[in-house]
Amino acid sequence: MKAFEWASPTSVAEAVNQLRPNGQLADMDDAPRPLAGGQDLLTTMKDYITRPTRVVNIKSIKGLDRIEGDAGKGLRIGALVTLTQIEENPIVRRSFPALAEAALAVATPQIRNLGTVGGNLCQRPRCWYFRVEEVHCLKKGGDHCYAASGENKYNAIFGGGPSYIVHPSDLAPVLVALGASVRAVGPGGERTISLDKFFTLPSEGNVRRENVLKDDEIITEIQVPASPLAARSTYLKFKERSSLDFALSSVAAAIELGANNTVKQARIVLGGVAPVPWRVEEAEKFLIGKRLDEATLAAVANRALRGATPLAKNAYKVPLTKTLVRRALAKVGGTTTITQPA
Amino acid sequence: MRAPGHPQASFAIECLLDELASALKMDPLELRKKNLKDKVYHSQLDRGAREIGWGRRSATPGSAVGPLKRGIGCSVGTWGGGGNKACEVDVKISRDGAVTVAVGTQDLGTGTRTYTRAIVAEELGLGLNDVQEKIGNSKLGAANPSGGSTTAASLAPAVKDAAFNARQAMIEKTLPLLGAVKPEEITFANKRITGGGKTLTWKQACAALPAAGITAHGEWKAALSGTGVHGAAFAEVEVDVETGHVRPIKIVQVQDVGLPLNRLALESQINGGIIQSLGMGLWEGRVMDAKLGVQLNPNFNDYKIPGCLEIPEIRVFIDDTDTREQVIGVGEAAIIPALGAVANAVYNASGVPVRELPITPDKILMGLMSAGGRS
After folding, report:
1. Secondary-structure percent of chain A, ordered helix, strand, coil, rounded to 5
2. pLDDT tens digits, residue range B206-228?
3. For chain B, what percent of residues have pLDDT higher than 70?
């Protein structure tokens, strides 16, 4: 780990100020970084993937660790709220079940006790080539995505190129499905960013970043609107190792049922398969007006995976993700008993 | 690194046997028994089959109804082990009754301290708290390096020899204090030395020692060390054929061990071997990039060892039909058979024979797709 300055601001404005680098940086990943739970940041620092000249401890800022609101008003979740707080919150569990399930699906109890919502959304990718110190890949300023033609078992089947990472967050697919936004504060003031505009594909944004947040901006709050979809929502995550793993594939699904148990509206967002949470709108539209019977579930799963372009070693993600789509929708529709993929 | 080369070879042989059994439409257990000359394997396979409930096993791989399919598999292992002449051990008895045993080896977590102390305590009729072991320093005496499961089989006979010699020296020194008795009729039990109608407490006996006490030396005795163990493992798993997820349900291992020195520690050691074997079977794999020559998963986040949720019910049976009074190290024997049993259980459940470790969901799903056109 490279030596760094330590700052412990007590206000958001002060924190933003301290995120501004002193002078010219040798590389963008030398920029000062905010530290909340530190569960991802420290691992990237230890492997020299990030080398912040200053670490800005934002845990000392008061008031960012609360969950407010309810099913009627929507939720306001402070950026420093831990995954454990989400998982244990009775309102989240009852009225936004997918969010509680996603928080519980993350890592281990120890990591959930420290990891925060803001950190979960901003964590860096897990691609082996990105994480191994010796490899200077595209996302670290190199000129080659080694995963494209290398060991790409865990990489993207949608939205890849020129980088083929997948976004590692479990909360992100759920929050996108529920129409959430983040509030971010930077030197120019505050802005609210809808989460479906927050994450960026490597082909459309800076290939070295996964979202639109600037280096001197911090997330202060996540806003989840009241929604007729939230109550019937779920998150199914498939892990190779149940005790501790990132998603090989995951699905956030939310539906509103209308007359005769037909679908009034639906949200289906895939995780672990693309550089961003991957919403499949065509599959969502297909469900409208239909009952969630076996034939419909199979058809919507096929539609959700339409256009997938697997790499040499990740074609298995197609049948796997189809299964998760079917099971997630069957669960929210109340028509199945198999609800846990792993 | 535990039995390097053995579990890998066992996996390959045992998986091919089950594929062969399937092609021959034979029970894999019967196929093994027809080809294993050593009857120890037969009794261990029969015992394991009873414990896992082999009769519940479906004869046709992948034939269960629904996406969650149970399967049962078996496998055998073999290991040499044994000791060699390397250890020199000293047992010292002081006039105040203190007993120390000095050995130059170390405890890897395999219970070396415990059995070193216990062997001396047993020989002298003392309790475990009456003996103090000195360990982990080369100056304490010559010793073998720990490797190849040779520590216990090399050290324990030398400890036994030193303890026996210490006992003989005690007999010599205490004979005048006892009545008319032949040396071989003197007993050491319950912290007392008894013979010729008289009983001395340990303290009384030690008080009669010369000022320097007694130091007895011991060396490895070939007759106290053995070699060659078997082992049979059985596994039951549940495979979700729509995701490729494997859930281990139960693993049984029947293991002969020579003379067990500490049954509790031994069962724990075999538990550990089974868990590592399971890890090797289902999750652990060293991923190298062929062009860069770099290991891509060089840490315990990306190199996946099993956690609490991966561990099934485990039943270990020490095969007590093995009556050899010879010590054999079992550290490495313990890891060998379980992964073949797990692999064969996955095959039995899913119908997919995966020939490459670890058996991960991608391989099972791709195997199912190429077998049945499932998508």
Report:
1. 30, 20, 45
2. 999 999 999 999 999 999 999 99
3. 99
Tell me whether residues B289 and A338 touch, CB distance under 8 A.
Answer: no
> Are A257 and A265 contacting, i.e. CB atoms less than 8 angstroms apart?
no
Residue B53: φ, ψ to 5°:
80, 55
Q: What is the least distance, in Å, from the CA of A133 to any CA of chain B?
A: 10
| Rounded Cα–Cα distance for residues B256 and A254 (Å) | 55
Contact with chain A for residue B59, Cβ under 8 A: no
Residues in chain A with CB shorter than 8 Å from the CB of B361 are 238, 240, 248, 316, 320
Q: ipTM of this model?
A: 0.95
Q: What is the mean pLDDT of chain B?
A: 95
Helices marked H in chain A: 12-18, 41-46, 83-88, 90-95, 97-105, 109-114, 117-122, 128-131, 171-177, 195-198, 281-287, 294-304, 317-333
The pLDDT of residue A25: 95
CB B192 within 8 A of CB B202: yes
Helix (H) / strand (E) containing A220: strand A218-224
Q: For chain A, which residues lie within 8 Å of any Cβ of chain B, measuring from their own Cβ?
A: 43, 108, 126, 128-129, 131-132, 134-135, 146, 150-151, 153, 238, 240-245, 248, 313-316, 318-320, 322-324, 338, 341-342
First to last CA, chain B: 38
Classify residue A102 as exposed, middle or buried by CB count within 10 Å of its CB (0-12, 13-18, 19+).
Answer: buried
β-strand partners of A303: none
Backbone angles phi, psi at A237, to 5 degrees: -120, 130
pLDDT band at residue B373 using 50, 70 and 90 as cut-offs: very low
> How much helix, strand and coil, in percent to the nearest 5, is found in chain B?
40, 20, 40
Query: Cα(A194)–Cα(A231) distance, rounded to whole angstroms?
Result: 21
Give all strands of the β-sheet with A5-7 in edge-to-edge order: A5-7, A54-57, A33-35
Closest by CA position to A51, among listed A84, A14, A21: A21
Query: Per DSSP, what are the bridge partners of residue B76?
Result: B232
User: What are the residue ranges of helices labelled H in B175-242?
Assistant: 202-207
Beta-carbon separation of B365 and A319 below 8 A: yes
Report the candidate in B258, B345, B363, B356 with the shortest Cα–Cα distance to residue B12: B356
Other CB atoms closer than 10 Å to residue A246's CB: what's the count? 24
pLDDT at residue B375 above 80? no
Residue with tokens 């759920």: A174
Over the stretch B43-93, which tens digit does the pLDDT of each residue have?
A: 999 999 999 999 999 999 888 889 999 999 999 999 998 999 999 999 999
Judged by DSSP in three states, B157 sits in helix
C-alpha–C-alpha distance, residues B320 and B300, integer Å: 38
**CB-based contact A136:A48 (threshold 8 Å):** no
Kind plus residue range of the DSSP H or E element containing B120:
helix B112-124
Nearest-10 Cα torsion for A224, A228, A230, A235: -130
- The two structure tokens encoding residue A41: 């940041």
Interatomic CA distance for residues A113 and A107, integer angstroms: 10
Whether residue A210 contacts residue A199, with contact meaning beta carbons closer than 8 Å, is answered with: yes
Predicted TM-score (pTM) of this structure? 0.95
**Dist CA B2 CA B303 (whole Å):** 17
- Burial label for B210, CB within 10 Å (0-12, 13-18, 19+), is exposed
Instruction: Identify the DSSP state of A112.
Output: H
Neighbours of B255 (CB within 10 A): 30
